[in-house]
Amino acid sequence: MDALMSRLDTFVTNPDFAPVLSLVKGVRNGVVYGSKVRFPHALVMIFLFRSGTFREKVKLVLKATRQHARNLATFAFIYKSSMIVLRNLNMAQAGKEGRYDSFIAGLLGGYVVFGRNRGSVSKQIVIYVFARVMLSLAQLAIEPRANPLSSVIPQETRTNISNNAYPAFAALSWAFVMYLFRWYPDTLISSLRSSMVYIYSDSDHWDSFRNFLIHNK
Predict the structure, then answer these.
(1) What pTM was computed for the model?
(2) Cβ atoms within 10 Å, residue 23
(3) Which DSSP symbol is given to 97?
């Protein structure tokens, strides 16, 4: 057994195999992370807010977990393999990563994995990423030397924008989601809509103490 482990250690630490092995580990980490993140979330949301038998709910939890894990694993494979190809296609510096390689690889992976899959799990991942991107871009917009206009923003103004950007983002996000829930609920993804129905709509209705505090309905 020790001899086998020694050979495996030698194999996986060989720099000649590093690009291919990075694909394998990327897929592995995508599966593990996707499962760890989605399983407890799906378990809580489905058992609390979905109707159906215990068996049906378990199937939904496993399906959501499998989809999340598969999406992240597939994206990792496409992204990392694209980065390898782009590095080898670099005419200026062969084998070196180009400035926009990550953008191109992310564009390809995003389209193949998430752009063509309109399921609720994929939408949740994209929406999460989109929100983070917007916050990062807002921060970059006022960073010195990040763009031609940022250098003309006074430091005091930059500080005020930085301090108030997130509160404004949070307030507007909730303002829009509550407006959409009130007047256009069908436009929201089902998991968000069901949780909001439970908190904001069901709390307007009861006909006894039992379904006022003990049970929702």
Answers:
(1) 0.78
(2) 17
(3) P
Cα(183)–Cα(201) distance, integer angstroms: 13
Count CB-CB contacts under 10 A for residue 63.
14
Q: Is residue 22 part of a domain?
A: yes
Q: Please give the average per-residue pLDDT across 68-74, as a whole number.
A: 95
With contact defined as beta carbons under 8 Å apart, do 145 and 151 qualify?
yes
Q: Give how far the C-alpha of residue 41 lies from the chain's centroid of Cα atoms, to the nearest Å.
A: 13
Number of domains in the chain: 1
Nearest to 42 by CA among 55, 57, 27: 57
Q: What is the pLDDT of residue 84?
A: 93
Rg, C-alpha atoms of the chain: 24
pLDDT at 38: 92
Structure confidence at residue 216 (pLDDT): 81
- What sign does the CA torsion over 90, 92, 95, 98 have? negative
The reply to whether 59 falls in a domain is yes
Beta strands in the chain (DSSP E): none
